[in-house]
């Protein structure tokens, strides 16, 4: 059965090279509570529903220790909500500015649409956040056929597969083999694996790589290649079926009609 639908993530995959907007917002929101987090710590749960992301960060041993030393108790639900409110405030302040298309997105999406594929999407952003992101992306020339946020699946975002299933319902896909999930976080890969679809990771500009476009451009070609390989290894360790550098590589794969069927056969045989 041939692939008909490509489901893409947003920040770090199609927009916001390096997935910088949520990193900055999480850092500021936790700093308001006098908790310091490294970018690496912040990025680890990236792709999840944002309030769940905050809970994951609060569960880190060093964060629990800092919190107890500061407040004489462990964090509670009211603290999660307070941090989330600050996170939303900081995110909305910078979201439009940090939602520009990644360099290859417009060209790649044009090619994929010309090949006749449906383009769906899932995200860790809420519907309100996505309205900002979608507006910027549309003005710059990219608008997928369908957008699903966690709010639309009872807040059961990644790693749950329900946003993918909602895309499949919309496009009336008959089988998991008609769908490919593409993303830049471990949560994206988990979402795809849990849905039973081919799961492809983008390395360049990904949250896992963790560099802004300016930082990435300063690297030599050899450094870029080495960093993409290191990032791919992390994705493969978490079950990615394939890693690509960017979305133009995805368009090429979809056009040549051989790699994807081989991956599907391998997936069936390993099931």
TrEMBL record:
Mg(2+) binds at residues 9, 11, 184. The active site is at 9 (nucleophile), 50 (schiff-base intermediate with substrate). Gene3D superfamilies: HAD superfamily/HAD-like, Putative phosphatase, domain 2. It is an enzyme of class 3 (hydrolase). Its cofactor is Mg(2+). GO terms for molecular function: magnesium ion binding; phosphoglycolate phosphatase activity; phosphonoacetaldehyde hydrolase activity. Its EC number is 3.11.1.1. GO terms for biological process: DNA repair; organic phosphonate catabolic process. SUPFAM superfamilies: HAD-like (SSF56784). It comes from the Bacteria. Binds 1 Mg(2+) ion per subunit. It catalyses: phosphonoacetaldehyde + H2O = acetaldehyde + phosphate + H(+). Homodimer. Belongs to the HAD-like hydrolase superfamily. PhnX family. This is Phosphonoacetaldehyde hydrolase. It comes from Enterococcus avium ATCC 14025. The gene is phnX.
